[in-house]
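User: hey, got a sec? need DUF423 domain-containing protein folded
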Amino acid sequence: MNSRFLITGAIFGLAAVILGAFAAHGLKSSISAESLNSFETGVRFQMYHAFLLLIIGGVNSSALKRINWIFYLLCSGVIFFSGSIYLLSTGELTGIDFKSFALVTPLGGSLLILGWLLLLLDFIKLKKK
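Assistant: Yep! Here you go:
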């Protein structure tokens, strides 16, 4: 078991539930439907990756060669992807123009893709052993 993955997954999951509830009850009447949908996309991706971190943390990950890279790519990907979506979605509510953060979203998505790719490559190598 890898407590770093488990703790981070639990924190991401907890935050996703809180942010999802906040979106459903606190933001619903304050931002546009399109912004609310975007916010919920950020929550959904955060929760997906919280589950992934919990799964990886619950198995023997010592055979994974790139475990540190996977961890940092997934964590930074969630923060950049979901975090930038949260900021962009609530810009009309806060009155702050976060459009300069728009390029962070695809960067975060790319980091998530790289994390999944490294995980896949490690799994393929496990099969060969």
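Quick note: Residues 3-128 form one domain. Let me know if you need anything else on DUF423 domain-containing protein.
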